[in-house]
Amino acid sequence: MRLKDKVAVITGGASGMGKDTVLRFLDEGANIVIADYNADTGAATVEQARNAGHGDAVVFVRTDVAVEADVQAMLQAALDSFGGLDIVFNNAGVGGAVGPLTETTVEDWDYTFDVLAKGVFLGIKHAARIMRSQARGGSIINTASIAGLSGDGGPLVYSAAKAAVISLSQSAAVELASDRIRVNAICPGFIATPLAEQGRPEATRAAFAKSQPWPDYGRGEHIAGAALFLASDDAEFVTGEALIVDGGLTAAGPELSKKFSRSSGRKARRAGITRGSTGEPPVLRDLE
Ligand SMILES: NC(=O)c1ccc[n+]([C@@H]2O[C@H](COP(=O)([O-])OP(=O)(O)OC[C@H]3O[C@@H](n4cnc5c(N)ncnc54)[C@H](O)[C@@H]3O)[C@@H](O)[C@H]2O)c1
């Protein structure tokens, strides 16, 4: 068990990839505080964990990650229930503001940034205080997104907030390294969770399976596995990283092979060498 007796707080742990991480971390021996805005799904997740035999290892704290006192209370719950704090997964999120830039209100901008960016800031701030006082290091993991890496990966405000999460993770990693507190981000691609599926799981999964080079759709378990690595001692020298978990979506980049060329990619019909404007001729052969 890779997290035996570790104590983790997981925000957004009542649904989607947060819930899958809760269940994986429990299987790996951790004690968990689930911190989520939704008390109904929170209770259902605790019930599921109990049915899986993890009754004593999980508690739920109703939390709004955008409210500083709530964040302090969720972390205090780890100390009160399990006697310490080793891992914080700042993962809670919403889609937030949608629509064109010119139609985006300040109110919707603020809500989106409050949950996605301020919530992560508060989680890092108060986790770091506790971890520093314990003097036994720690791992802080923040859910960013591939939306934070380019201009067309998600709604505008969401993308800006996720870029902020990547930057916060890097800055905090530098500041907290001397205390052996690691801070990393995960950048998921398209992951089939309630947030992404919006009540249409079949259609979403079919679309997601075709949206990246990897032939299956992304699942919450894929993010749980990445979070487990970052939480575990196997990642002892990994800090300030933004780990992309997207089935090769961002690696594919501009997808030239789909748009222009007959000579690159697995389906290319020719192979050989081209020498540009050198005046030297290309040497190409047709493929079967
Ligand atoms: N699903 C994707 O394709 C995808 C891709 C990239 C990033 N993400 C990010 O992954 C994270 C988890 O999303 P998910 O897809 O599992 O969604 P989800 O909706 O299944 O789960 C998100 C959870 O966060 C909780 N939450 C929302 N606002 C909160 C708040 N203010 N305080 C506390 N809890 C709050 C919700 O109640 C919910 O339980 C989010 O940060 C999201 O932006 C998702």
Gyration radius from CA atoms, angstroms: 21 Å
In the sheet with the most strands, the strands line up as 3-2-1-4-5-6-7
Structural class: alpha/beta
CATH class of the largest domain: Alpha Beta
The total number of structural domains is: 2
Find the CATH topology of the largest domain. Answer: Rossmann fold
Beta-strand proportion:
15-25%
Q: What small molecules does this complex bind?
A: nicotinamide-adenine-dinucleotide
CATH homologous superfamily annotation of the largest domain: NAD(P)-binding Rossmann-like Domain
Spatial shape:
elongated
Distance between the termini: 50 Å
Describe the protein.
By secondary structure, the chain is of the alpha/beta class. The chain folds into two domains: 7-253, NAD(P)-binding Rossmann-like Domain (Rossmann fold); 255-288, no CATH class. Helix content is 43%, strand content 16%. The chain contains ten helices and nine strands. It has helices at 16-27, 39-51, 68-82, 106-134, 156-176, 194-197, 201-209, 220-231, 249-252, 256-259; strands at residues 7-11, 31-36, 58-62, 87-90, 138-143, 181-188, 242-245, 270-273, 283-286. The strands form two sheets. Strands 3-2-1-4-5-6-7 form a seven-stranded parallel beta sheet, sandwiched between helices. It has a two-stranded antiparallel sheet with strand order 8-9. α4 (106-134) links the parallel β4 (87-90) and β5 (138-143). α3 runs parallel beside α4 (106-134). 44% of the residues are buried. The structure holds nicotinamide-adenine-dinucleotide. The site of nicotinamide-adenine-dinucleotide has 29 residues, from α1 and α6.
